[in-house]
Specification:
elongated, metal-binding, about 150 residues, alpha+beta, 5-stranded mixed beta sheet
Length: about 150
């Protein structure tokens, strides 16, 4: 992990290691089972020679980071205007019913975390859409959603 972060730091001018904080946090989250603890964020701050608060601010601002344990698979459903006008509200309701959890919760078996509704995932042309484990799925129907969810391990 340190070698990966060092390669990220090397992409930037000397003294600009702050620019690697997103990559470093993503890597730390991956190595910690899908979420960041204070200990992991402190380690990132130490390695990047940054005050811990600089790392905490990034980790709590971006929706790609989790600061508590969550399910193995992460689903984000866009609910911005384009998606909403094309049926994302019905998609959210269907997924909640199918999984037996509400937005912001993890299934009992730990298989799926239904992330808080996303304001925008920047794929308006393919509305409604959702992101599953950082992979976009566009032009959703209930049938497509079921197929995607059923394929998750």
């Amino acid at each position: 992990m340190r070698a990966y972060i060092d390669r990220c730091i090397a992409k930037y001018p000397e003294g600009q290691q702050r620019s690697a904080v997103l990559d470093a946090l993503r890597e730390a989250q991956h190595h910690n089972g899908g979420y960041l603890t204070e200990e992991w964020m402190d380690a990132v701050a130490d390695h990047l020679q940054l005050p811990p608060i600089d790392v905490y601010e990034v980790a709590t601002f971006y929706s790609m980071f989790e600061t508590k344990p969550v399910g193995r698979n992460k689903i984000s459903i866009c609910t911005n205007i384009s998606c909403m006008l094309n049926g994302s509200d019905q998609i959210v309701e269907h997924v909640e019913n199918k999984l037996g959890v509400k937005v912001g919760q993890t299934t009992e078996d730990g298989r799926v975390f239904l992330k808080c509704e996303e304001e925008c995932l920047a794929a308006c042309k393919g509305a409604p859409m959702m992101m599953v484990n950082h992979e976009y799925h566009e032009d959703l129907t209930i049938e497509k959603v079921d197929k995607i969810i059923d394929s998750l391990e």
